[in-house]
Design a protein that fits this description.
- The complex is a heterodimer of chains A (112) and B (332).
- With 112 residues, chain A is mainly α.
- Chain A folds into two domains: 1-71; 73-112.
- Chain A contains four helices and no strands.
- Chain A has helices spanning 9-32, 35-38, 46-66, 74-106.
- Chain A is flat and about 65 Å long.
- By secondary structure, chain B is α+β, with helices and mostly antiparallel strands.
- Chain B starts with 26 loop residues before the first helix and ends with a helix.
- The relative contact order of chain B is 0.15.
- Classes of the chains: A mainly alpha (112), B alpha+beta (332).
- At the A-B interface, helix 1, helix 3 and helix 4 of A face helix 1, helix 3 and helix 10 of B.
Chain lengths: 112, 332
């Protein structure tokens, strides 16, 4: 509890500024949707990659600064973060691949 | 050996671990974290299911920009994303006031904690209200569409002077009275013990007739053209052929049918934003309880504000989930 009595106000405001900038960038890109980012990319569009990475960065700031994970004991933090990251990655890997398979299988059967 | 023998001890804390704090965290805080972890997995399950469905219908999924286009006070203005961006910002600010309350709690400043908690509650209420407004727009719909016998949604578009297609509302081109004499069934005009779901404002025949009379109108299908990532707009002849297959006028959205496209799109929207909204709602209730405890001086007497920290964790988690919901429903 070394931190308990010092104030982290400055850090909080700085993180708010980061989160605001990140959200603004996301929204601006979402409205403009530049063709070179929107129509090309690896697997999905570059734009989607940017959105996902910026989202993870935002999640990092919220969890580390606001939820104060940065002040918790290392293995407490890991017991939460690693569990979530491992299980969610696994779930997404299985489920998204399955979604792609469903699409490929059903596509010839759908009449437009 | 000692470890295996139950020694009668006056120190009743021994079995509970005494004052040892695993991971240096209190029991309550640790369990809040593990609850949040399990809740995070629940939300991931929902979002993964949404992802699976999107991949399954990757060539016909509705485009968010064409669905969420409202901003309060701007009627008829195409304003995608702005409102939900504002909502996101409001929730982030409420997270900031929450963490400031926790910070003030560490310094035992009762008044400051109370004010920051109050601000958090207000921002939370604004957010839930915004979400309700978003739902209202989604349920009422803005343009209307028809559904064909193949269970596909057809929307109506018109080209502007630059050749760009814009969706046009049924009310903008259907000007006749309905001819089939169909009326909404209410207790006053029918069987008092029977109910009927809201019927559409126009009949299918009326829409088809009006469409035939205005050669500038075209049909937009659900299909996405991979090269442009835009919905496919049919030529006039194909439009007329497709429209002849219509068997239902769709206005807005419910769990069975919606004017935006695939029914499961609306189902996921209602389910995931609803589940998140329910979390925000319960967060507000818990925040209110803690707010009153702060005012009553409960934590001042207890000597620490850890309860504020714990509800703070929950509140931040709600914000964290929204960040992902925002990305996957509105951006990607």
């Amino acid at each position: 509890m070394a931190h308990s009595h010092e104030s982290n106000t400055k850090r909080i405001w700085i993180v708010l500024i980061y989160l605001t900038i990140l959200t603004t960038v996301e929204v601006a890109l979402g409205i403009v949707k530049p063709d070179w980012l929107h129509l090309h990319g690896l697997g999905t569009s570059w734009l989607n990659w940017i959105f996902i990475i910026l989202t993870l960065v935002k999640a990092y700031f919220i969890a580390w600064a606001f939820m104060h994970l940065e002040g918790e004991k290392k293995w407490f933090r890991r017991s939460v973060v690693w569990t979530a990251v491992f299980l969610i990655s696994y779930l997404l890997f299985i489920v998204l691949i399955e979604g792609g398979y469903l699409h490929d299988t059903l596509k010839p059967l759908v009449k437009w | 050996m000692e470890a295996n023998i139950a020694v009668n001890s006056d120190n009743k804390e021994t079995w509970g671990g005494g004052n040892a704090k695993p991971f240096g965290a209190s029991y309550g805080k640790m369990m809040m974290w593990f609850f949040i972890l399990s809740d995070a997995l629940t939300f991931s399950g929902f979002l993964a299911a949404y992802g699976l469905t999107r991949f399954k219908f990757i060539d016909s999924w509705p485009i968010a920009d064409e669905v969420f286009t409202h901003f309060p006070g701007l009627h008829g203005v195409h304003a995608p994303m702005y409102y939900v961006a504002l909502m996101t910002f409001i929730l982030i600010v409420s997270s900031v006031t929450m963490v400031l309350a926790v910070d003030a709690g560490h310094q035992m400043k009762q008044k400051k904690v109370a004010w920051y908690m109050f601000a958090t509650i207000i921002f939370g209420i604004i957010f839930v209200g915004s979400q309700a407004w978003e739902w209202k727009n989604f349920i009422n719909g803005s343009y209307g569409a028809v559904k064909t016998t193949e269970n596909k949604i057809l929307q109506f578009v018109k080209a502007d002077e630059h050749g760009k297609y814009h969706q046009i509302a049924l009310a903008d081109f259907v000007h006749t009275q309905r001819t089939d004499g169909r009326e909404q069934h209410i207790p006053e005009n029918g069987l008092w013990f029977e109910k009927e779901a809201t019927i559409s404002q126009y009949s299918v025949a009326q829409v088809q007739e009006a469409f035939k009379n205005d050669p500038s109108l075209l049909i937009r299908t659900e299909k996405v053209i991979p090269e442009t990532k835009q919905k496919d707009v049919l030529n006039r002849e194909d439009s007329l052929t497709k429209l002849a297959m219509a068997n239902q006028v769709v206005e807005g959205a419910n769990l069975h049918v919606n004017e935006y496209g695939n029914p499961i799109f609306a189902d996921f929207f209602f389910f995931i934003t609803g589940f998140h909204g329910f979390h925000v709602f319960s967060g507000i209730i818990i925040n209110i309880i803690i707010f009153f405890n702060v005012i009553l001086g409960t934590y001042e007497r207890r000597g620490h504000y850890e309860m504020v920290e714990k509800v703070g964790l929950y509140w931040h988690f709600v914000d964290l989930v929204w960040v992902f919901v925002f990305t996957f429903f509105y951006l990607v």
